[in-house]
Amino acid sequence: FWRFPDRALGLDTLVLDAPRVMGVLNVTPDSFSDGGKYGGVAEAAQAGFEMARAGAAVIDIGGESTRPGAERVSAAEQVARVVPVVERLRALLDADDSAGVRAAVMSVDTTSAEVAAAALGAGASVINDVSAGREDPGMLGLAAERGCPVVLMHMRGQPSTMQAEPRYDDVVGELEGFLLERAAAAEAAGVARGQIAIDPGIGFGKTLDHNLALLRGVDRLAGHGYPVVVGVSRKRMIPAITGRGESAGDRLGGSIAGALDAARRGAVLLRVHDVAASRQALDVFGALLGWGDGRGSD
């Protein structure tokens, strides 16, 4: 389980004994799937609240797009985008009568320690860093200081260059080594082992074959004891496989298939855009496989 020492209300832990849903809430104008979707702070916060009501255990809020080719966004601009949404959403979650909704936590999707610190101060509880703590040398120390969970993801290069002919000799082995090295770096910085999660970064500097190999290797990554986060939702690999779904919003079936297989192989956090459908699929899938009472949420 993850501990949240700064949580004043709700549960102070998130038990990862069954696959949980991490809902994607991008407050950006240019994310590949939902950029510019929300008209303002209130609308974005309400969307996050509806994700919690639909069964998301974590709402992942980002103020900088990491789609292929995306331009960088300053820390100040990210803070301006993210912090008001975190504050308003935390208030909505804490005021709800449902224990499951109140217990939902927020993660901040950023590579900047400045942004992460501001979001944590506003009510977020988890850091989700697609650079695995490499871009900002203060990130791992911040996670240690705050005692918060941190997700370490693999990305080849930068969003603007990551899809430029990615090559690996052994993609699963190379990413396994990278993620274990970054987890060790986090522990060396003072982050408790139980607060570290790893993410192979599907689509972040990988070809279709690389992505498929990594998804087939989730059980290998999970074998090291760190919670594994997987995000297949609406990725371009889906139309590459099926020949359908050129629009990101038309990739629900493929997204759910990828999430269920990742869960079967040991992933415990599934990063998704379509929370209600994904949660329903996981509940039924879990019941069929005998995961507890078949309900992945409260």
Strands of the widest sheet, in order across it, are: 8-7-6-5-4-3-10-9
Strand content: 5-15%
How large, in whole angstroms, is the Cα Rg? Answer: 17 Å
SS elements, strand count:
10
Element-level helix/strand string: EEEHEHHEHEHEHEHHEHHEH
Total helices: the number is: 11
Mean pLDDT: 90
Helix content: 40-55%
The major sheet is characterized as: 8 strands, parallel
Q: Roughly how many Å apart are the termini?
A: 15 Å
Query: What's the shape?
Result: globular
What class, by secondary structure content? alpha/beta
Contiguous low-pLDDT stretches (5 residues minimum) are 293-298
Please specify the SSE layout and strand pairing.
Blueprint: E1 2-3, E2 13-14, E3 20-26, H1 41-53, E4 56-62, H2 75-95, H3 99-102, E5 105-109, H4 113-122, E6 126-129, H5 139-146, E7 150-153, H6 171-188, E8 196-199, H7 208-216, H8 218-222, E9 229-230, H9 237-242, H10 252-264, E10 269-272, H11 275-289
Parallel strand pairs: 3-4, 3-10, 4-5, 5-6, 6-7, 7-8, 9-10
Antiparallel strand pairs: 1-2
